[in-house]
Amino acid sequence: MATVRFTSALERFLAAPPAQVAAATVGEALAAVFETRPALRGYVLDDQGAVRRHVAIYVGGEAVRDRVKLSDPIGPDDDIYVFQALTGG
Amino acid sequence: MAERLHVGTRKGLFELARRGGAWDIVETHFLGDPVSAVLAQGDTIYAALDLGHFGAKLWRRDGAREWRELAVPAYPSKPEDAGDDPHPWSLGKVWVLEPGGVPGRLWAGTMPGGLFRSDDGGNSWSLNEALWHMPERRQWQGVAGGEQPGISTVLIDPRNPKDIRIGVSTAGVWASTDGGASWRIINEGMYNEYMPPEQKGLPIAQDIHRLACCAAHPEIMWCQHHNGVFRSEDAGHNWREITAIRPSKFGFAVVAHPRDPDTAWFVPAVKDERRIPVDGKIVVARTRDGGNSFEVLRNGLPQHHAYDLVWRHALAVDASGERLAFGSTSGGLWISEDCGDNWTTPEARLPPVSVVRFADH
Fold it and tell me: CB count, 10 Å around CB of A63?
């Protein structure tokens, strides 16, 4: 099972604990989390389902490439980190 | 007269109450988060947040209960054939929230130009498809400093909730008389100095910073336009420039007296690249004769090296027409209880103010 971990910066707004998911892509992994926590979706993705401009998603220490369709593959033991992209001081 | 005031800032929502003749902050909400719109209706408060990383959010508080996050207005899936739409199909921010004139109804004006309606007190929202799918909507220009157009004003005729006007930066005044089923641009008589000569007078080229109408005479409308002040006596169809405004004609905010159709207030600034008060003195301009003349009000306002700007939604008048408040980009907040003759400032150093709104009771 892969693990999706969210930035603690979200805790001010809603619960976002780490989640174990069975998924083959970043998109599937996030969809599995949002199934149980639908309110979280809008914090991570925009209205078209793409990653928000100022949100970063890393898998295995690298930023995901496909921020629109979320098609990057993930391995069964990967950690997927969702956190805020640093865009200001 | 309103006894409560809500001040949305770059770093939270501040709730002020009038006690013993003075206004003080009595509650703080969303400390640290940018507030882009606020509405207080009875004991219910709505607050729209514009989170830098996590997008636009909407919250509601009923009475003394906890804040609850609501569904946020969402744009539909962008169809394949909309690839040449210059504007994103995704909520930028909620810029204005207005009651819709029937129980439970709210309108939300947003960036990038979508108008949304809720009929259940903000629990769910639907995009006004008629406006969004108009071909002309793709011609709307972005708000200065950004790429996205924004609906800055939603005016509902108090006599008929189907009669709606919206003001768009930058795309003129649009009207619907059928509750939003159809729209047309209506503003004649405005001009936009910075446009090429052949486009100066086009209705769609007009940068409507903010509209206001007199609640008792909603056909009387005022506009603080990018390059001047205009008044309409026929619900936004024909506009006449008000040249008597002092000390300058540039600004963002306007409010109209709720009963007197000849009274309105503005906060002028130096146009338009500089955007600071004239001579470093903060003043409010008030007309009581339909714009033929203005009084420049300054009692209690900073008159020495003040460089505050007042945004579109940061000037408010209460339902009595006697109490006014405005907040500034430097975190200034001033309140008047005598129609603007005299101003006081509460004990606070606030973050930059985006929106000021009295409770409706």
Answer: 13
pTM over 0.90: yes
Q: Which residues of B touch A54 (CB under 8 A)?
A: 52-54
CATH superfamily of A2-84: Beta-grasp domain (3.10.20.30)
B327 with B335: CB under 8 angstroms? no
Closest approach of B228 to chain A, Cα-based (Å): 35
| C-alpha to C-alpha distance for B300 and B159, rounded to whole angstroms | 37
Contacts of B277 (CB under 8 A, 6+ apart): B268, B269, B270, B283, B306, B307, B308, B309
- pLDDT band at B56, cuts 50/70/90? very high
Residues of A with CB under 8 A from a CB of B: 9-10, 12-14, 39, 42-44, 46-48, 50, 52, 54-55, 84-85, 87-88
Q: Do the Cβ atoms of A55 and B91 come within 8 Å? A: no
What is the tens place of the pLDDT at every residue in B89-130?
999 999 999 999 999 999 999 999 999 999 999 999 999 999
ipTM above 0.90, yes or no: yes
Taking an 8 Å cut-off on Cβ atoms, the answer to whether B53 and A54 are in contact is yes
Residue given tokens 């089923």 in the structure block: B181
Question: Which residue out of B53, B59, B69, B116 would a mutagenesis test of the A interface target, given it has the greatest number of A Cβ atoms within 10 Å?
Answer: B53
Tell me the domain boundaries of chain A: 2-84
Taking CB atoms and an 8 Å cut-off, how many pairs form between chains A and B? 48
For residue range A2-58, list pLDDT tens digits in order.
999 999 999 989 999 999 999 999 999 999 999 999 999 999 999 999 999 999 999
